[in-house]
Amino acid sequence: MAEHQSLEPFGPARSTVKGSPLSEDEIKQYDDFFKASCYLSLGMIYLRENPLLREPLKKEHLKLRLLGHFGSAPAQIFTYMHFNRLIKKYDLDAYFISGPGHGAPAVLSQSYLEGVYSEVYPEKSQDIEGLQKFFKYFSFPGGIGSHATPETPGSIHEGGELGYSVSHAFGSVFDNPDLIALTVVGDGEAETGPLATAWHSTKFLNPIVDGAVLPVLNLNGYKINNPTILARISHHELRSLFIGYGWEPYFVEGDDLDSMHQAMAATLEHCVNQIRGYQKKARDSGEAFRPRWPMIVLRTPKGWTAPRKVDDNYLEGFWRAHQVPITDPATNSAHLELLEEWMRAYEPDRLFDKSGKPIPSLRALCPDGNRRMSANPVANGGLVRKPLRMPNFRDYAIKFDRSATTLSSSMKNMARFMRDIIALNPHNFRLFGPDETESNKLGAVYEAGKKVWMGEYFEEDKNGGNLAMAGRVMEMLSEHTVEGWLEGYVLTGRHGLLNSYEPFIHVIDSMVNQHCKWIEKCLEIEWRAKVASLNILLTSVVWRQDHNGFSHQDPGFLEIVANKSPEVVRIYLPPDGNCLLSVMDHCMRSVNYVNVVVSDKQDHLQYLDMDAAIEHCTKGIGIWPRFSTDAGKNPDVVMASCGDISTKESLAAIDLLLQHFPDLKVRYVNCVDLFKLIHPSEHPHGMSDKEWVSLFTADTPIIFNFHSYPWMVHRLTYKRPGNENIHVRGYREKGNIDTPLELTIRNKTDRFSLAIDAIDRMKHLQNRGAAARQAFLDAQIRAREEAFETGMDPPYLTQWTWPREGLWKKAAEKLVSM
Amino acid sequence: MAEHQSLEPFGPARSTVKGSPLSEDEIKQYDDFFKASCYLSLGMIYLRENPLLREPLKKEHLKLRLLGHFGSAPAQIFTYMHFNRLIKKYDLDAYFISGPGHGAPAVLSQSYLEGVYSEVYPEKSQDIEGLQKFFKYFSFPGGIGSHATPETPGSIHEGGELGYSVSHAFGSVFDNPDLIALTVVGDGEAETGPLATAWHSTKFLNPIVDGAVLPVLNLNGYKINNPTILARISHHELRSLFIGYGWEPYFVEGDDLDSMHQAMAATLEHCVNQIRGYQKKARDSGEAFRPRWPMIVLRTPKGWTAPRKVDDNYLEGFWRAHQVPITDPATNSAHLELLEEWMRAYEPDRLFDKSGKPIPSLRALCPDGNRRMSANPVANGGLVRKPLRMPNFRDYAIKFDRSATTLSSSMKNMARFMRDIIALNPHNFRLFGPDETESNKLGAVYEAGKKVWMGEYFEEDKNGGNLAMAGRVMEMLSEHTVEGWLEGYVLTGRHGLLNSYEPFIHVIDSMVNQHCKWIEKCLEIEWRAKVASLNILLTSVVWRQDHNGFSHQDPGFLEIVANKSPEVVRIYLPPDGNCLLSVMDHCMRSVNYVNVVVSDKQDHLQYLDMDAAIEHCTKGIGIWPRFSTDAGKNPDVVMASCGDISTKESLAAIDLLLQHFPDLKVRYVNCVDLFKLIHPSEHPHGMSDKEWVSLFTADTPIIFNFHSYPWMVHRLTYKRPGNENIHVRGYREKGNIDTPLELTIRNKTDRFSLAIDAIDRMKHLQNRGAAARQAFLDAQIRAREEAFETGMDPPYLTQWTWPREGLWKKAAEKLVSM
Q1: What ipTM was predicted for this assembly?
Q2: Xylulose 5-phosphate/Fructose 6-phosphate phosphoketolase N-terminal domain: which residues (chains A, B) (predicted)?
């Protein structure tokens, strides 16, 4: 085929696929549908009264403030409606993802014409009154958003923050073999990093077990105020790019409506047939393969069908069509006239009946029932969600004879639990991660489900590759993509877990923010059924970035999460392996949360047997009598911690203190559920002040060793009685190439520093404490020297267990069994 | 050319460019250089003693803990050393960016062989003692990092968090017309979103005024534990991908050293000549164009030249070569033997002389002086930094007759200042942003420097496009890319500013984190000269996301920044336009900081004339007597704010209070410099407790209206005297489609809520206050109703100015002129 080289979006259709599948009459019908849809989009932006222009347009009919975006609407509408033809023809199971920013007018108009919008929101009925409300409340306080927000029927993707349409689409079709996600990608969005790499998702899509994504890259040429890159490179480069990404791009370019209708209809049909053909071939043969999946490049003018110019300024086909296309009809009567003329050209008189209802021939183009894309239950994932089949987490308990004497990897143990969840849920659960699952010691999962890989296979893969075309683990070195997949997967009714190094999870701060916001809104929307929680497991934690150095030290993701709605976010820092099991079991069963679990992957001390762990995690925070010597009352000091490494150091600090002050009344408090610390008015998990005092007292020094930044504990506890007694240690920016010990010492979260903190804060020890203080300092220096000599932490620190024999005599006698 | 289709990295060289530029003798020399470099890389990972294997290798010579990564080293070394030939031949100005994670052994070995490392760190001398230290301290506590950290000579790019090598490289060559950034991109890194879109940077590079980036995509095939996508797609797809991105890819593939030396030498030379040719053509003609710039795809085995197998497991050419290639030589004597054999195959006996110095023929391959890539001053940007030529910011003052009676856009005004900075610094300053510069009301800058655009041009661009091939404004819809460009630009000695919508700046949380860490480390490194600060201007703030809705509401970036080192981060929230000018002037002149400035773009009240603004910004926080009625002592309440919108509401709340309680002693405190709030032990800007008390008292209720999350103020002030009196209002996750007023009301940061807060906290007003309280509630409800009716905030709120005539009589008399 000779390449058509024009980059201008104007003229008769130029398309890769030829064909005229539509009759003249059909062209006319689609033209009507397009007009009605564009009319609705403009109405949303402009009109508060006179919704069908039954009287001449006056400025009093206009909204006082014009808000909303027209630019991407026509091309999205065009795509949506022509796909409807194929849904009807082939009885397709499909839904629509609107990638371009502020794409709501496009999808709202379709949902309204399908009748879904009025079914979901009866007051926005298909008549003049309903239409007026529909228009008025668009981009209006408390009303309808200008993005495809959770209130939008059929949406799982808001498109507020750009970049995630393709990864969301893929997430939704994994394990949904009959589903097609028709995904319009904006050429602005396409410039973002997350979108640019998400095209590679095809290397993880299996045509037997998964559905298909049909992307339509809409080159309307402009962003807010700039041309787009992809609209200004040669046809050859553009085509090469998508072939390079592994797609077969089909071009549909132009603005002449009649020929464009034919071209789009023919191209979409060709793509659907190709998708179905590849799926059939793979499914019939049982042999998966990676075809070059079809995608469409739809080049149309921005604000297609708007006036080409307003005065001397280009509108259609320029960035001025991005938002409100004609900005001043209220003050410029010529512009008001132009607007009216434009709107009337969409023929509202003809296309809506006397009552204001769309005429039957429009409705006839829409599919029925749940085949209407805005009614597809997959986009209200809670409706189709099946609970996970869960093994009994108690069966994976780490067994030990005595608390705090056994070292083992909580993560490695938990991997067996995860493995069996995978085995029990072969179509309903996936594990996601950026190439770190094995490094995070979760490799046992591969026994139940290998890593999905649709790229080429080499001989070496047979020996430890753990790759398979049909697998359960999704790994790509793009936190953005795996997070996007997980979000799409969960929002369409399935379950999953993302595992990541703690320090690099900041890469997806903004994505997690947006998901939290999505879930929070969903809580307010009656018809949105609850979806599985988004579970994020952070490991390879900041305290064990052994020698990786400063760039790998950042525990701040917890703050990002804690800033989101208390209705949505949950943060757990299990101190040991049995607590990790209990917490994970809870998270996997929960709905509509974003759960963040922080647990290191290295060997750590195990403290609680399974029953004690369940009890502790259920409470979320509690005194550990075994590690306390205050017999439940009037402690001299409260040692507290949150996080596994923090806990070990806190307990070792108690050990040190008791060596020197055997009669010391120490209370140890462990926190698993971070939001227990906050007042109940701020988070539903918050404990009452009474409970707080029963744990921490109102007048005792508290040495709180925390996994993340110390001020996070202050922020959570500043309203607590006796909050001035809380002395928090945590991570601060003082990094280096460090051993774990050195890192804790620099941050004063090591046992020696904590013990010194405790002495310094117990007034009655000020005199007695000097010798002990010095002994701790000496021991700290000794340990440092050893570490600097060998490059490793001294074994008596790394392998420290509790209790050390023969130590703290009086105190030991007081020990209460847990 | 027939396409070579093998994806296996083994065998004789397969290359696009043919040729044999090297003599047999040269091949031998480069082979030696390669061997010496690989030997050094292994030595760093394994040896603490016996650095040149002058005696048989024993386990006692091994480091106790083996850390470091070999996988990407050989191919990076190979690239680096063959480029040296061209530096010498053509006297090139070039430096090296190491993209693959943990790439330090590659660059350290080169710096050591060039002699630069020993010049910078004399104790790591070019002899046995120095070598032993060099080896020992690699990945050792307090020692040499396993990434190209700031301590690494010649590095501006650490490669800890992956994804930014290409955007950093482009940033460094903008306005550096003679510079070539030789940039190795890992195939793991290439999967990240930021990297995937950064390839498009060519659409912003002008061959006349800018230098060139020569990317070498190293397909070593594996990440930590997975194959890489780009190594497992067909040659056709891979080639198409880079053509699509706008590059001309040249392939060099194989593992046979002799033929690979020839192929790489020929290919690099071809690329350099092509780069120079394009530059010459453009410069001679004065006509810029976008060539298809050359790039190289270097496909080699991971851990190239490592043993192919260890026992039955693949090592070379598999992911097992990623990190420490042979993991257990200390406990497995066969493996110790294998390691020794492997290391001796690199012939350390021959390649280092008796003293341990590299033999002269190795040194002879390196360029001299600053032409050595690890000595290029561009990578120590402070050395080449020229101060900005600054216009006098006072000349841009917003003039007004009376404080708080004029509404204007601080941002639009500041744009004139920015415009003139651009004009005065045509080669030394650029403005960066993700397609929002115009929307952010900074459009005036285009008068001095247009937007760089090397894509196709259309007719429409002439009418408001503001595009040019040589411009000063860099806009791409990728926060990642523009931030990466800015970082590269600043780190190589220039100046810049990023402007962004506040809510979406979280997209680059992790990048800013990493830059803060980089700068912090630089402060500790004597030879690193100071670079210009990284300036981030946040606007389109969370409080004015008019109708954009919930997804556009997130003020949390300030917390991300505040968590970084106090030596590096600065946060300013100027209350008005003259303060914005003063703050921006300060930021643009500063060095080695990350400055974040938050200022809305809409029209706002102007409070301070230029002199007062300078004084206020210099102090960073202060009482505004004009808006206070306490005559400087014993206030009944302190109303405080930080942020422009917050300030307006706080002042309006004072107005409301005074209407009802004309004798109220109100003190108003404004905070510009956020870190003034924190104790000086925590940040150098922190004020003393004495100053704190002089502003806030220790016993008066404080109603603090804050731009971001309220707990941030608590976190900053929890150590302050009387901190229990601080009542903070700020943003919380309660979003919706809102008018600005409604958003503040939901968050209780509006004037009515603040006035009610004040009443509720002034004990002596408990009885007198009931009527006023009710009046405020009524007014609030009325204002809401109006807004819900019209979709707009009532004009008496948006246009509220101070003082309203005839109000608060007694209080007005007390006003002190500022």
Answers
A1: 0.97
A2: 22-383
